[in-house]
Structure formats: C-alpha cells, structure tokens
Amino acid sequence: MAARAVTGTRAGVAGVSRRTLALGALAALTTAGSTPAYAFGQHRREMRGVWLATVANRDWPSRPGLPPEEQRAELIAHLDRAVADRLNTVIFQVRPTADALWPSPYEPWSQYLTGIQGRDPGWDPLGTAVREAHARGLELHAWFNPYRVANHTDPGRLTPDHPARLHPAWVVPYGGKLYYNPGLPEVRRFVRLAMLDAVAKYPVDAVHFDDYFYPYPVAGQTFDDDAAYDAYGGGFTDRAAWRRDNIDRLVREVAAGIRRVRPGTRFGISPFGVWRNAATDPRGSDTQAGVQTYDDLYADTRKWVREHWIDYIVPQVYWSAHPLDQRVPANYAVLLPWWAEVARGSRTQLYIGEALYKAGDPAQPAEWQDPAELSRHLTLAKQHPAVRGHVFFAAKEVAVDRIGAMAQVVADHYQWPARAPG
Fold it and tell me: What is the pTM of this model?
C-alpha cells in the first residue's frame, strides 16, 4: 500500500510553469503557517479516514496467533483511536492475500489471524469491525486486494483446497509473489464472487481497492500471461491495451455487483498517485515518476473518475509539499491540483491519501521531520473544492504518532467532528 521509492524517470517533463505556480502557492502557505480549520467551514461533510492494514500483520493484529479476546481488544483500540482523533472512516483490509477475515465459502481464513492459513480464529473480525465501527459512528469500508495470492511463490504453502492450488492455470509467479491472472475471465468472476460474499453478508459502507492491479514492475522479470493474451487478446492494438481492458472490466463488473448485492454501498479505489507524467501524455501531471499507473499497472484511474465507474478515488499522494524539494519525482503541491482538475465536474468524489507513515521516519528527508508537514497538506487542499477529505496511512502510525504530526492535523483541522461524505 505504501508508495514505492520511485526514483527512476522517463523523458523530461513539460509544462514547467504549472509546477512553478503550484510550488509558489505552497511557498506562501508555508510562510503563513497552518491555517485553523474554522477558516474553511468546519461543519461540511468530509472524509477523515485511516487505513487499517492486515497484510503481514502491518497494523493489526499485532502478531498472528493472539487469543480472540486480545485480537478483538486491539481492533477496538484502533476504532477508539479513530474516534478520539475525530476521524469518521476506517478502511479495513479484509482480503489481503486471496484469503478472508470472515467465514468465506470461497477462500481460507487468513494466516495473519492464527499464523496458519485456513485455521478458524474462533471469531468473526469483519462482523465485529462493522458492528463496533457503526456503534461508534464510524463508517467501515471493506478493503480487498483482487489479485494478490501470496507473498511467496510456493503454491504448496497454501491450504490444500485453496483455489490457487485447485486451479494452477489461474496463477502467475512474479517478483517473488503469486498473483491471479487478470486476463482470465474465470479469474475475474471468481474474485468478484469472493469479494461480494462479504458485501452480501455485512452492511459495509463501501468496497475499497488499493493500488494493486497488475503488479508493480520488477526489473528483468516478465509477467507471463502469453496464453491468456493468445486466447483473449484479439482485437486489441497491443498487450498493454488488452491488460487495461481487463482491469476496466474488473472495475465495472465489481461496481455492478455491489449495486446488485447491496444497493447504496459505495465503491472506492486508492491508486498510486501518478496516472501519467506530462512528458508521456499532455493530460498527465507535471511529474517525473518512474511508475505510471496507466502504463505500468494497466489501471486507467483517470478514466474511472471521468466516467464515474467508482464513487470515490483516493490517490496516494505520498510526497512532501516542500516548495524547494527537487530530489523527488513528484510533489504534493503539483499532484493535488492535477487530481482536483480530474475530479472537477465528475460525480466521483476525491479524497487524498496522506503518508503519515513518513512523518518522523529518520530515513525520510528533513521536511518529513516537521510535525506540521501533513497539516500544511490539508491547508493546501482547502484551496481546491473538489477535494472532499483525506485518508491517512496507516492505523499503526495514527496510534503511535511518533512526532505529533497527526495531533497537529487534529488541532489545526479536526477541531469538530464531521460526517463522512454521502
């Protein structure tokens, strides 16, 4: 989920004037300092979310194999912390690796609960999360990863009845992991059924995907979908266009399934923050990112917004907004107005993904050691009416808040509670 270190660049970036204007606006804000929330109308509805990641026990549970009562207590503590920080939404990862945090007829119980894939944890985490979140006035968005099967390449480590073992032709090893092949219609049908099972059983407020579609590129490796392309790629100009169509189909089919199974439940996606660089496409952002979702993950995130295939989008704008920072391939103050323009006039709501995990990390540049960095992000976003809120990565950092960056956000911007956008 966290943005990769994308230091590679493509061709030089055009449109320098846009970047200069954006960074100049930020410089003025930086000089003025953080603006209190009341200056912008604190009573409007806005997204104030946090991701709660379960893959590899990143945020919860703290380790596999805890007794059910301890797992439940840890989960409740995250919900209570969200309330204390006047957040209104928890995005809970319930299908991290082709597994389940609810009793699923399609896939095994997640190993991140008990340490052993397929072992019943003795309670229902998703059911508990929905019930306890709603009791606290929080929305609960169920976060699914469609295609990631395992963080290793050994099918023998999966449960004997795992669908990936029963259907080995569905699976592609790549980059040290196993993935379902998005190019197979039977795979798309299966993952849709597996995810919609949770939507049918629980009154979740939204279905949520992150940035994992086709896997991030790994130098020197090829994602082997030759057979699927030979079977289904006819009529496309090239493999990239076919792959993008595969992901488009998934998005449209899941959206239709949600409307059918539980009308009123929303559908949101949190992609990597750069759709395309302007040097690649004049419609792109004035960035030099080494990864572009359109070209490398085959996810046409801009189209999903413009066509209103999804209800909300949360681009992971995980860069600083420092006006003089030329060391990174992108800048918050450049990407923010780009996404605001994409969302303007559409029916897809725009929230911004915030890199709380970088705040106070000694491996990050100096601007991330400033507790006010994220608060400045929210101040800058107030200049763009299309931005309807923010989501913070992730729950562990919200709880620890190692340099007080989250406390600064709460003090400056979340002085009053707010309802999530409808």
Answer: 0.91
C-beta of residue 15 within 8 angstroms of C-beta of residue 385: no
In the chain, where are the structural domains located? 16-143+186-413
Helices (H), 33-155: 68-84, 111-114, 125-135
pLDDT digit string, tens, across residues 362-401? 999 999 999 999 999 999 999 999 999 999 999 999 999 9
- H or E element at residue 397: helix 395-400
Return d(Cα 36, Cα 39) in angstroms, integer: 6
Which distant-in-sequence residues (6+ apart) come within 8 Å of 347 by Cβ? 308
In this structure, which CATH number among 3.40.50.300, 3.20.20.80, 1.10.357.10, 3.40.1000.10 belongs to the domain 16-143+186-413? 3.20.20.80
d(CA 386, CA 407): 25
Residue with tokens 């943005």: 3
Average pLDDT (313-321) is 96
DSSP state of 208: E
Kindly give, in sequence order, each residue whose CB lies less than 8 Å from that of residue 78, ignoring residues fewer than 6 positions away: 50, 52, 59, 60, 90, 395, 398, 399
* Alpha carbons 419 and 252: distance in angstroms, whole number: 28
**Prior bond of 417 cis (ω within 30°):** no
**Structure confidence at residue 150 (pLDDT):** 98
Residues β-bridged to residue 177: 174
Distance CA 57, CA 66 (A): 12
| 416 φ/ψ sector (left φ>0, alpha ψ -120 to 50, else beta) | beta
Range in 112-121, 226-235, 241-250, 321-330 with the lowest mean pLDDT: 321-330
